Amino acid sequence: FMGGHGNSMGGIIVDAGSFDWSANGRYPLMSEPRPEYQGVVLHETFGNFAFAIACRVLGLRDLGPAISPFNAFQILTGIETLPLRMQRHCDNAKKVALHLSAHPKVSWVSYAALPEDPNHALQQKYSPKGAGAVFTFGLDGGYDAGVGLVSNVQLFSHLANIGDTRSLIIHPASTTHRQLTDEQKTAAGAGPEVVRLSIGIEDAADIIADLDQALEQV
Fold first, then answer.
1. Which of 99, 121, 101 minimizes the C-alpha distance to 110?
2. Is the pLDDT of residue 61 over 90?
3. Is 132 found in the same domain as 42?
4. pTM confidence score
5. 17 compared with 133, residue with greater pLDDT
């Protein structure tokens, strides 16, 4: 979402600097001497920016998640339009979720912006401008209907990632969670009837029309 396209992987770590990493011994990486740095205790030495230091001297050094300059540029450029895009994502997603919740071939929709959703009150409290772009719904036709829906959409892109400006769709049971048993899929929220959408910034009417024509074929 920050970059606006599925072309870069990156993120932002936000830390207020007020957490006591040494309070109860649960965070030894921060509160105990680091042998690779001559016994330095990160929290003791760096105080309120110890976590930022740990990300660099432990995460970056040991795992190497250093973003390339070009990908950093792409994400920074995308951040300039983030508020505008996110509002469009949220507005579109709510329209699509409302439409699907009334569709005869859809058994349920899980989206916090819907008044009947169990998390609706929390969404209104913590993110009143919208509930995000990603949600799942269930098809009455089960596994075959999910595969058929993904096969027949035209505007949606069949991709496993989320957060693109384009609308994305996936049927987890036949793709990302295919190796699990049916019981494991259901426990993971990826049952045979589940379809996941990441709603883009296209015209909401076009997104809905694409889903409708594909649902007619399942």
1. 101
2. no
3. no
4. 0.83
5. 133
